[in-house]
Here is the input.
Amino acid sequence: MREKTYDGLIMTEKAYREAGVEPIFDRRGQKKAYFDSLASKEWFDGFKAPFRVTVLGLGDVGGTLAIALRTISPDVISEIGIYDLDDNRIKRYEFELNQIYDLGRKMVPVVKVADSDLFNTDIFIFTASKAVPEVGSAVSDVRMAQFEANAGIVRSVMTKAVKSGFKGLFCVVSDPVDLLCQVAKETAVAVSEGAFCPIQVKGFGLGVMYARARYYADKEQLNYFEEKGRVFGPHGKDLIVVNALDHDFNEATSLRLREKTIRANLAVRDTGYKPYIAPAISSAAFSIISLLEGRWHHSTIPFGSQYLGIKNRWTKRGVEIEEHEDNPMLRTWIENTLLQLENDYDTLPDL
Here is the structure.
């Protein structure tokens, strides 16, 4: 069983001291910010916009993400690199995306990335995937069905990244996001002999779960959800949905929204299509841009040996998360989710 060294949602100062890690806290505001180590702070201090972005994999999700990044063309991104095993697919996306223009706007250039330059980037976005169940299959947890196959790809890619001298941010968009973050981090730490910081891995799967929960909350006319509702955890069956963080919290409402949110991807599959548009834009494009702009978004943060999806933002003081009123039910749900993530990770064979 994991030692409970967290106060609410981040490690306490006492736990940091016992672990031999110097804490960095902001005591002036109502929210907390932290780095998990001084090495993380040193890495972050050199992490400055504008950023070069590389998208690995131009399938359904990766292709849609690349379209969104070009269309939005935020100032924090200087270049969008694209890479895929299919050279014709790369040529097609370079050709078409660079023909997306809006009068009076500066558009971020899209460039083809050669094998030798794959990791010569600031933001590496992993969207490659294997073993995605076909529409109509009997698989109930599509996310976990891809774990072993995608873990193998992540290990291979991260090993090459570290050996090539990659010093940027490794973003995981492929499923299962939270578990693949752990695979990426442990691979990087092993290959770099501890020189790779956990903060250099971030997962983007929770944004669409918030969007789906809000969609169903709107259907139920729960108008307070936009302000008070929250989601935590993985993009999958162990998701946590909270209808409200204050006195309006209701367990039954939260569980009902959670069940609808978890089944939302299956509802799209029932129409005969794969659910990739909303994940590519809500979880990946919007969230990654918000991260780079220092705005609140949904992504994973290092949480002990694991990664937990949560609303957060990056500031000069570190990773900032909200402080909430103590909610025993929410605390229990988070502990159960972390335990399940731990058990799921343990099912992965050594590769």
User: Anything to note?
Assistant: The first helix runs from residue 13 to 18. Residues 1-13, 20-30 have pLDDT under 50 and may be disordered. The longest strand covers residues 306-315. The CA atoms of residues 242 and 330 lie 8 Å apart.
